From TrEMBL:
Transmembrane segments: none annotated. Residues 84-174 form the GS beta-grasp domain. InterPro entries: Gln-synt_C, Gln_synt_N, Gln_synth/guanido_kin_cat_dom, Gln_synth_cat_dom, Gln_synth_gly_rich_site, GS_Type-3, GSIII_N. This is Glutamine synthetase type III. GO terms for biological process: glutamine biosynthetic process. Coiled coil: none annotated. Residues 179-616 form the GS catalytic domain. GO terms for molecular function: glutamine synthetase activity. It comes from the Bacteria. Belongs to the glutamine synthetase family.
Length: 729
């Protein structure tokens, strides 16, 4: 009985909560390990400080001399905090963050004059030996080098004893190799386009910032238990395991009291977040057992994306201290809720206005409606691209599999706003009569804030829902880097706002309409043209699938199918028109994501085959042998009558043999299917083969294994069971 499973169980169930005491109040801790305004003021010369501020606010270049000064101040600050190393911190397309640490320490060639050194050159640019990061064929091996370059808009921070400098990652030929570069460009595009539209309503607006507030869901599993499951270790999810007798049916976990081990983990996590300037605010249990959520106050999107990536790193590290493995996978356990990462998104002006929040006057509401309706139009036009932006092998378990939300992108706006749009749609063509104007302004637009006050009908099944003062993109996966979704969303809205501006201007200049009239006219046409994307009903229902098909909305349940939209003409045009990505960059990303998909399924297939053959079958045979011994014994005692007496055992022996054969044949067939898929040269075809030819075996093999789990004696089963993974606290 000394199997890994039982040792792990013993270890896990005897653990006490790891002690943790906050060192100070949150407001005191906040940002202490960030090179923020406060630190800059203290450690930079006035010139250097101004240089950084200009770079952050207006994107001005930082010259080499200035960089030297900034680096010097940054180093001084870091040394006061015991830092020994620095690294450029970036987000390659693998989904994880990357770092390469260098010591501050330097000496002369003969070992004399040891000193802590960090110059502008090292701050601004670094060359990671990055030939092993995915690049989708952009970097040929003979010039397999990219470089990282400082992004001053996201402040440097200290983690452990390392100064981390957020950077972009670009190839020497100038193409983006990371998530951040296109995101920054998309944020720029939406800033420009939205600022132009804002000028219709307020000439003082100079900058619009896209805001993001993510909600990170995750599971905690005891490290010992996680380590006893090769599937969790290798793929982040369970590939087999019979569902536990007690699941989430009772819903007693949701908003219940947080178990104390988890609570101490969260407290330490929150303290780390505070030090790093990540403004986390809420913590609670989620629907499934051992599932939790952490969410911050929203921030400027680039910073929020960095903070989410950083958070995921920090969570793993703090998790280790508390003997937890943090599972970010969208579906770690069959039969219990999966995890998502809702992306709450809006736009705010430098004059302090949330553009998706209705105001007090008809004018501010017309502004609200312009941004609100243009977002709907953008999603309608580019729903397929938006779906592609969240497509991963792991997110397929949610989007493609009757779980929240569906693979069909639609927009939920609530009853009240639906009414407002219907009234706006009735606006007459061309010039408005004075009565019409008054009616519109006072009775339709004027009343929006009041109607929104009781807009409480929140549709939990919608992938993209308006929630009072922001849109909530709910289909983003819990393991994703938010940048992918945010680049796409901000790009399509930027493009749409540009088009809107052109159309409104054409009516003003060409047809002599007043500004308000022109805006009303364009919005009316938009409302008529984008009804397809609006849906208020149950997103999981079959009826919606049929209805969506009639509306010709896309419904790609798998990543390989969904990803194609990334390289459609519409997508390529969009990204190049807005200078976000050129064709090479878009195509490279598409290839990388296909490869990523293929690799994930390939690994899952291998791991499943291994576990089924090396854990499940041997265990089943051992148990079967016990049964056989038993039957033999019965035969000895009872002679010819044994068949009657041993009937159940004999049936079991046969049943076990049936499942063993089932596993063996299907693992063999799956391996053959993998070989055929591997022989394909086209990335799209290979991903589709893995999806359609290899993946279907997972369920069949699992089915046999899970049946065996029920048949075989609990004490000899080597794999930690669902009830143990989910209910050990
Ligand atoms: P709930 O939806 O649970 O009622 P809130 O409405 O306060 O809670 O916000 C949920 C999430 O939305 C939070 O993570 C918050 O940071 C984010 N959020 C709120 N306002 C905005 C905004 N203007 N832009 C982006 N995210 C926002
Ligand atoms: Mg939410």
């Amino acid at each position: 009985m000394s199997t890994l499973r039982f040792r792990a169980l013993q270890e896990a169930s005897s653990r006490k909560p790891v002690k943790f005491e906050e060192t100070d109040r949150k407001s005191v801790l906040f940002g202490l390990n960030v090179f923020n305004q406060r630190a800059m003021k203290q450690f930079l010369t006035p010139d250097a400080y101004k240089g950084v501020q200009d770079a952050i606010q207006h994107g001005t270049k930082i010259d080499r001399k200035l960089a030297d000064y900034i680096a010097m101040g940054m180093k001084e600050w870091a040394l006061t905090k015991g830092v020994t190393h620095y690294t450029h911190w970036f987000q390659p397309l693998t989904g994880a963050t990357a770092e390469k640490h260098d010591a501050f320490f330097e000496t002369s060639y003969d070992g004399s004059d040891p000193l802590e050194k960090f110059g502008g050159g090292q701050l601004v640019q670094q060359e990671p030996d990055a030939s092993s990061f995915p690049n989708g064929g952009i970097r040929n091996t003979f010039e397999a080098r990219g470089y990282t370059a400082w992004d001053p808009t996201s402040p440097a921070f200290i983690f452990g004893t390392t100064l981390c400098i957020p950077t972009v990652f670009i190839s020497y030929t100038g193409e983006a190799l990371d998530y951040k570069t296109p995101l920054l460009r998309a944020l720029n595009a939406v800033d420009e386009a939205a600022t132009d539209v804002c000028k219709y309503f307020d000439k003082n607006v100079k900058k619009v910032t896209a805001t993001l507030g993510w909600e990170q869901e995750y599971f905690l599993v005891d490290t010992a238990l996680a380590n006893s499951r090769p599937d969790i270790l290798m793929t982040g999810r369970t590939l087999l395991g019979h569902t536990s007798a007690k699941g989430q049916q009772l819903e007693d976990h949701y908003f219940g009291s947080i178990p104390s081990r988890a609570l101490n983990f969260m407290r330490e996590l929150e303290q780390e977040c505070m030090l790093l300037g990540i403004p986390v605010k809420t913590r609670h249990n989620e629907v499934a057992p051992n599932q939790f959520e952490v969410a911050p106050i929203f921030e400027e999107t680039n910073l929020a994306v960095d903070h989410n990536s950083l958070l995921m790193d920090v969570m793993q590290k703090v998790g280790e201290r508390h003997d937890f493995k943090v599972l970010f996978h969208e579906k770690p356990f069959k039969g219990v809720n999966g995890s998502g990462k809702h992306n709450n998104w809006s736009m705010a002006t430098d004059t302090g206005v949330n553009l998706l929040s209705p105001g007090k006057t008809p004018m501010s509401n017309l502004q609200f409606l312009s941004f609100f309706i243009n977002t709907i139009v953008a999603v309608n036009k580019y729903e397929e691209l938006l779906r592609a932006s969240i497509a991963t092998a792991s997110n397929d378990h949610r989007l493609g599999a009757n779980e929240a939300p569906p693979a069909i992108i639609s927009v939920f706006i609530g009853q009240q706003l639906t009414k407002v749009l219907a009234e706006l749609e009735g606006v007459s063509d061309g010039k408005l009569s004075p009565e019409e104007k008054t009616d519109l302004k006072l009775n339709v637009v004027g009343k929006i804030p009041d109607v929104l006050l009781d807009n409480t009908d929140r549709n939990r099944t919608s992938p993209f829902a308006f929630t009072g003062n922001k849109f909530e993109f709910r289909a983003v996966g819990s393991s994703a880097n938010c940048a992918n979704a945010m680049t796409t969303l901000n790009a399509i809205v930027a493009k749409q706002l540009r088009d809107f501006k052109k159309e409104v201007d054409a009516l003003i200049d060409g047809k002599g309409l007043k500004k308000d009239e022109a805006i009303f006219n364009v919005l009316r046409e938009y409302i008529k043209g984008s009804k397809n994307i609006l849906f208020e009903g149950d997103g999981y229902s079959d009826a919606w699938e049929q209805e969506a098909a009639k509306r010709k909305l896309s419904n790609h349940k798998t990543t390989p199918k969904a990803l194609k939209a990334k390289v459609s003409k519409a997508a390529l045009d969009l990204f190049s028109e807005l200078n976000i990505m050129n064709h090479v960059e878009v195509e490279a990303r598409y290839e990388i994501e296909l490869e990523e998909y293929t690799k994930k399924i390939q690994i899952e297939g291998r791991v499943l085959g291994d576990i089924a053959r090396n854990h499940v079958i041997p265990t089943a045979i051992r148990y079967q042998n016990t049964l056989i011994e038993n039957v033999k014994g019965l035969k000895e005692i009872f002679g010819a009558d044994y068949e009657n007496i041993a009937r159940e055992q004999i049936a079991l022996i046969k049943e076990i043999s049936g499942h063993i054969a089932g596993i063996n044949t299907n693992v063999e067939q799956m391996t053959e299917a993998r070989k055929r898929a591997n022989a394909l040269t086209d990335a799209q075809a290979m991903a589709e083969a893995y999806c359609d030819e290899v993946k279907p075996y997972f369920e069949v093999i699992r089915e046999h294994c899970d049946k065996l789990e029920l048949l075989v004696d609990d004490e000899s089963w080597t794999l930690t069971k669902y009830r143990e993974l989910l209910f050990t606290r």
